[in-house]
Design a protein that fits this description.
Blueprint (H helix, E strand, L loop, with lengths): L10 H12 L2 H5 L9 E6 L5 E7 L7 E2 L5 E8 L2 E6 L10 E3 L5 E6 L4 E4 L5 E4 L7 E8 L5 E7 L2 E8 L6
Antiparallel strand pairs: 1-2, 2-10, 3-11, 4-8, 4-10, 5-7, 5-9, 6-12, 11-12
Length: 170
């Protein structure tokens, strides 16, 4: 039984799942890689969660986004990913542009086997800065993503650009 309070897996349980799955070399090796764009495969996540295996060509990233109120986790299976995140909870409604304080930026390197869990208000971008090497990672979210908000960033200014719905990702 989960300790999350809503019947779904906790962020810690999601992190355990993505780490175990990222270590499954047969699964990781089954994802077709594209030299130009990201590739992905839907996975069965624990406890009704949504999970994905994602391939990242060199020089690609997600752009700034959130997960529509879902908690989640991801782990690098191969290559190295960089996560840039904001250490502040943003309001989800009623704004188009925010000016961020100077001390809210965080950055972490995630080599193979490393991952991170996050809560429902996490805003970040994930990047593969490698010049030649693909990266692969496993991601899980609960509840399954109701939407994703996409942002642009210029210096301290964060702007809400669009809200994507789940049917746009399949």
């Amino acid at each position: 039984m989960s300790a999350s309070g809503d019947g779904g897996p906790t962020a810690t349980e999601l992190l355990d799942f993505v780490r175990r799955t990222a270590a499954d070399q047969a699964l990781i090796g089954s994802l077709p890689l594209d030299p130009e764009g990201r590739t992905w495969m839907r996975l069965d996540g624990p406890g009704g969660s949504e999970a994905w295996l994602i391939g990242w060509p060199p020089g690609t990233g997600t752009g700034w986004h959130d997960h529509g109120g879902s908690r989640g986790a991801f782990a690098t299976a191969s290559g190295r990913l960089t996560e840039q995140s904001l250490a502040v909870q943003l309001p989800t409604e009623g704004w188009r542009t925010l000016e961020l304080a100077e001390d809210v930026d965080r950055e972490r390197q995630l080599p193979p086997g490393q991952g991170r869990a996050f809560g429902p208000h996490h805003v970040h971008q994930v990047l593969n800065f490698a010049a030649e090497e693909h990266a692969l990672s496993v991601h899980a979210y609960y509840p399954p993503l109701p939407l994703m908000r996409r942002y642009s960033r210029t210096g301290p200014l964060l702007r809400l650009e669009e809200i994507e719905q789940p049917e746009e990702w399949t």
